[in-house]
Structure formats: structure tokens, C-alpha cells
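Follow-up to my earlier ticket, as requested here are the two runs.
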Amino acid sequence: MGKQLLHTVFWLFCSFFSLAVVAADSGAGETEDKTKQKTSNYQPLIERYILDELRSVRQDQQQIVADIEKKVANARLDASDRAIRYTSDTLNNIFIIITTAASILVLMGWRSMRDVKSKLNEVVETKINELTQEYEDRLGELEGKLRKRSQEIIDAQEDISRSNELHSIWMRAGLENNLHQKIKFYDEILAINPTDIEALIYKADAAYELGDYEWAFSLANRAIEQDEDYGLAYWQRACANAANGATQEAINDIKIAIEKAPKLVDELEREDAFEDLKDLEEFRALTPKA
């Protein structure tokens, strides 16, 4: 079943990639209005297909859980049957031994039949108690192992389901052009995984694109609180600071971002948010030399 899920995810990725390539090639010679119209025509079909695949994954997960519960129940029943059968056979053997021993003792004239009966009852009761306790311990241990294994399988299935759902939302967010709708998708991701720093950064970028620089600044701060070594979070906060006119704070954040992620230095000249900083000597000192 795990291979089938991986195959489905891989097939979905290839399908979306093919659709993206076809859309890019067919839209090269058309106007922007026609491109938006085609995107809006394909998007409901894509969303519907994704939802159908998610429903299929959930149904498969439910079937797996049902199968696991059935197997656990059968294993418990088989173990109980074996224990009862073994106990029954053992008791029969004990009674045979006891009968033989009693016959020998009678022949040998050992005390009286009352003493023999009392002793035999004591031996049988002790042996039965020992066997019962032993198999109770074994059954308890087996049940504990089965319960632990079942919980591990259920947890793994939940992780797979959650990962598939997050992947689906990320893909839908990538296909979305409306910034408000993108933010809704990022909120869905954060609702499932509140520590997803990537979702915070993308949400901050969308807020910046909408012109809400204070919101973008706040989201970037949240990302930095979660991971102080994530360079892109400082970069996003630098964009918000630059837009708000906090020039020195923006320069400081750029320095930290480059220190945490040195590859960002190549993006300095291409970042539109830093257009007003490019005339500053301190900013030019950060740019790579030609």
C-alpha cells in the first residue's frame, strides 16, 4: 500500500508538471487575458482531481486500519485457543500421571486413600495455578506487543495522510494566482503544521505583495522566533523594513540573511524591494564585485 501511495503522489506530480509545461507553451503566443481564461478553465478540473485523489487515499487508509484491527483480533483469538488447548492437554497428562501414581501408592500401601487424595489435590491445584499464571503473563505480553505495533502502524498512516494533505495544499497554492487565496492555503498548512516555517515565509511574501508591510514584518518575526538560523526569514523582514522606510534595520537584516545563507548575496541586485537601498554605500559594500 505504501508503494501505491508513493506511485499516486509521483503520478500526480508528473501530471501537474505536464499541465504546467503545456500551459506555458500554449500561452507563449497569446495575450495575458487568454492565459488567465485558460487557467481559470483548467483549475476547477485540477482541484476536483486532487480532491478525488485525497478521498481515495483516505478510503485506503480506513481500509488498512480495518484490516489491522481484524488481524489483531484474529491473533488474540489464535493465542487464546493455543493456550486453552495446551492447558487442556497438560491437565490430561497430569491426571494420567496422578492416576498412575495413585495406583502405585495404593499397591505400596502408602498411608490411606484420604492422604493420597489430599496430596494429589494439592499437587494438581499448585500445577494448575502455575500454568494459569504463566499463560496469563504470556498473553499479557503478547497483547501489549500487538497493541504497541498497531499504534505504530496507525501513527504511520496518519503521518502519511497528513503529508499527502500538506503536499496537495502546497500544489494548489502553487497554481493559485490570487494572493488572498494563496494566504488561505498557507493558513490551512499552518493549521495542520503550526511550525511550518516555509508557510510563514510564503505568507509573509504574499502579504508584502499585497502592500501590507506591517503584516509581512510580523510574519517574518514569527519565522525568526521559530528558527533564528533561517536566513530567508531575515531577508523577508529586510524587505518589509525597506518598504516601511526603516533603512538601517533593512541593511542589518540583509547582513544577517547573507551570513545565514550566503547564496542570497546573488539576489541583492535582482530584489525589487531593495531598489531604494542601492544608492547607499553600505548596501553597495554587500553586493558581489564584478
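Run two:
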Amino acid sequence: MAALRAGLLGVGMMGRHHARVLRELDGVELVAIADPGGDPHGVAGDLQILPDIDALIDVGLEIAVVAVPTRFHEAAALKLAEAGVHTLVEKPIADSVEAGQRMVEAFAAAGLIGAVGHIERFNPALQELRRRIEAGDLGAVYQVTTRRQGPFPSRIADVGVAKDLASHDVDLTAWVVQSDYERVFAQTAFKSGREHEDMITITGRTGSGVIVNNIVNWLSPMKERVTVVTGEKGAFVADTSTGDLTFFANGTIPLEWESVSSFRGVSEGDVTRFAFAKREPLRVEHEAFRDAVLGDKTDVVTMEQGLRALAVVEASLASARTGDAVRL
């Protein structure tokens, strides 16, 4: 079978990695790159840098990746849908729920695969975590907390930390526990002089009753990417920056020190750090998209799912503005 003809729109900080993976992916041939800003990272190789999405489409594509700033996602995706091109759009799906809904409808009407790059679903630590939760290793799930914080990235100018980063945590939380957010309450802060928020804390509950807390900011000098899932049998800690997964089991040995046991709900048990294959999340994401285009059943993140994550983020921002909890 001939390789799928692929095009890439945007070769900035994220687009350069898409270019590398597309070139290495079996069954895919990167035939065109477009970026009105040129090729700042020198990834084009033998390919000419085209000026815009129209020139990219004219090359003749079967699949495309959109890795430009969020505010340009809708216009590019709608043109690709009209041209009959299966498309993977970087997260968030769009800069508004309304724009995202138009994208969902366009790809559905055209019968095309429309996907969103929520790459954390393909992180080996989170995939292993979800498998173990499904297998019952944690028992009932009680709570999910995430921490995603680090320095401000000067490349992000069109959205705040909620849409750029918290969208990761919203999507991965709902995916790991397999239940959508039911209601949220959030608080934001604006400390860097920009029009968009640079800090947000989202507290919520999923439809299955899991309590959620997402802590996200661009104001920390340390970079942290941690997900903690607490349940009936202990707690899983996934570090998605390293791909590590650790399980802290509830202890089974009674504590004899009364002053300690009196304030501990559970005792400390065995700690296990799991060993498993750790493949690059972006490569796994691209394989899922490729296989979905070829008609296989995969875990690709659909535009409908990407839109749901954006709706939760927008509800959180609305909560922060009004001071009230928002039910989805």
C-alpha cells in the first residue's frame, strides 16, 4: 500500500517534533510543510516552506497536522475538511467552544478523521496507570489531583494557561477515570502583566463521583508534571515528564504507635515503581492517527473529545470570573 501523503502546517516549537516523527513513521510520507513564519528550527530539509494552508492543500494530501497558534486552528481545519484531508490538530482544539463545534461538524459531515493532539493520553505512565485501574489494582477511585507548573513560555501569546496547559489535565483526568467532569469551581490569577491568566486551580467532580483538583501555572521556577490517583487500595503517582509510575499501597500491618495511628486514615504499605516499555508519546499518537485513517480501531483523541475538554476549561474560566461553581 502506498504511504499516506502528509502535510504539516506550522514548524514552531511543537511543529518541529511533528516533522521529525512524520518522517520516521511507517506508512506515512511527509510531502509538504507550510509556515508563514518560515523555518526557524531548520526542519524542512529538502522540502520547500510553503506560505499558507492553501498552498499546502494544493500539493495533494491525505492527512495533515495543524501545529499553529490556537486562534488559527479553525480556519485551517475547515479548509482541510473541505479538501477531504484527515487532520490532527494540536490541542486545544480551538480558541472557543463555538469554533471547536464548527470543526467537529465539518469533519463529521465530510466523513473524515478529525483528531486533537492531547498527547498525555499517549504518555506511557498514564497508559499504564489506566490499564492498572481498569484491572482493579486500585479498587474504587476516590480522587485525582494533577500538578502542571513551570516557567512562562514566551511562545504562547493567544491563550492563557487554562486552555494551553489545563486542557491537558482536564482531558487526561477524564480519560484515566473514564468519566467526564460534571461540575467545576475555579480560581485564576494574572501576575505576569498579560491579558490572559497565568495561574488556575480547578476543583471538580466527575459524573462517577471522583473528586478532582487540577493545579496549573506558568509562574513556577520548577517544572512539574504529576498525576496522583487515590483509591480504595492506595495511590498511584504518575510523573509524565519521566514516564514513571509508582504505586503506594495501603498497609496491612497494624500500627502499634498509638499517637501515629490515631491520625492516619490508612497505614503506609509497600511502594512499587513499575517497569514497562516507554515509547515516545508523540510517535504513539501519530500511529493512532495513522491507523484510524486506515480504518483501524484506535485510541485516537477525537475532535468530539477535544471539544469536551475545551468546554470544561471554558466552564472553569467562567467559574473564576463569577465566583460560582458551574455544572456541565
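The only thing I checked on run two: The mean pLDDT is 94. Let me know what else you need.
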